[in-house]
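// run 5 | inverse folding | seed 20
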């Protein structure tokens, strides 16, 4: 069958392939999905909304109260100068990313993105007609402002940063983020996209939103990881009004609005107690420490993850490692799914019940010893 060129240039996400093709009984370290339930107040708000008969559309940009709660959160936690009118509520952060690319990138425009980086960035650049330009990361998997500067051209339209990072677990320093943001701010017509979905799962360092230093920034986030609401599909983007208008033009045709019940639940999440988020972060940290200890004993070459809930060890061939891991009943994601410079890595998620995580890692120990 003949498909459009833009679709022919992309493939199904490597993460989803690992998830969909998982054999029964295998321990899944491939999917970045919290293994706990959404907080009780969030679930109660959803049930209440359903009992009240909530089933209709909301305004395209989202419920006014939710947009205001998001703006208040961004002003208070992230020190961003935003109001409700700067916010678009979306069907997950995935849609928010898509809207930013569609609203900004024209055919021939260049998009600078981390390599390795999240699986969506390259395909979204292709779907918008742009050209993805990978920025090689340092050995600790952080983004070097000098490497970004070397790749800026008159065609650069968008620079993407992601901290804490999926797939690497790296956390960018405020100084590096500020340097990148100021580069973008100094160049007319260039924009910054900051993916901050894992901001609350940070174990060393501090989180910084680069939109503090660059007015032309789209900040993307979601309820998905913070509140264990991946299947509720509730994300958002905050940006200057002109970009918000462009995003809404696309959003109104491909989505109309995010799910009404999910929006009500997200509002409860933002307004309610945040203790469950802190407890999740503490649990992930304990799992990270356990995983680093087990893989360290195996001699794994592992850049120390400082946030999110992923390990990204070097293994020689990510494809080979993933095949051999599957033979041992463990699902992983080959690092090549995250860009050309990820091919010698594999991604392991520790958003898995601790006993299962420990069992999976022990099964993988012989593979890491073999790769030494």
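// decoded
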């Amino acid at each position: 069958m003949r498909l459009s060129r833009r679709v022919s240039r992309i493939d199904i996400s490597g993460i989803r392939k690992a998830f969909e093709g998982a054999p029964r009984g295998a321990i899944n370290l491939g999917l970045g999905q919290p293994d706990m339930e959404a907080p009780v107040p969030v679930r109660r708000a959803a049930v209440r909304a359903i009992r009240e008969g909530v089933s209709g559309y909301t305004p395209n940009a989202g419920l006014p109260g939710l947009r205001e709660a998001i703006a208040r959160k961004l002003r208070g936690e992230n020190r961003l100068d935003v109001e409700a009118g700067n916010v678009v509520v979306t069907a997950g952060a995935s849609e928010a990313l898509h809207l930013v690319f569609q609203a900004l990138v024209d055919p021939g425009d260049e998009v600078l993105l981390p390599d390795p980086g999240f699986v969506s960035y390259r395909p979204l650049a292709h779907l918008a007609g742009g050209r993805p330009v990978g920025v090689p990361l340092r050995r600790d998997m952080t983004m070097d402002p000098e490497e970004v500067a070397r790749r800026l051209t008159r065609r650069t339209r968008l620079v993407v940063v992601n901290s804490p990072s999926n797939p690497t677990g790296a956390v960018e320093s405020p100084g590096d983020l500020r340097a990148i943001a100021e580069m973008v701010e100094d160049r007319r017509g260039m924009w910054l996209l900051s993916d901050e979905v894992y901001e609350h799962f940070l174990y060393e360092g501090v989180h910084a939103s680069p939109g503090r230093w660059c007015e032309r920034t789209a900040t993307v986030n979601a309820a998905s990881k913070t509140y264990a609401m991946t299947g509720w599909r509730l994300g958002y983007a905050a940006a200057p009004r002109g970009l918000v208008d462009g995003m809404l033009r696309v959003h109104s045709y491909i989505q109309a609005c995010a799910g009404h019940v999910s929006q009500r639940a997200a509002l409860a999440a933002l307004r309610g107690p945040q203790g469950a988020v802190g407890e999740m972060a503490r649990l992930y940290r304990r799992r990270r420490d356990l995983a680093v200890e087990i893989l360290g004993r195996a001699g794994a070459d592992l850049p120390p993850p400082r946030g999110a809930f992923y390990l990204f060890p070097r293994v020689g061939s990510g494809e080979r490692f993933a095949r051999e891991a599957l033979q041992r009943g463990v699902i992983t994601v080959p690092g090549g799914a995250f860009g050309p410079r990820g091919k010698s890595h594999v991604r392991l998620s520790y958003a898995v019940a601790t006993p299962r995580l420990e069992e999976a890692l022990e099964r993988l120990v012989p593979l890491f010893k073999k790769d030494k």
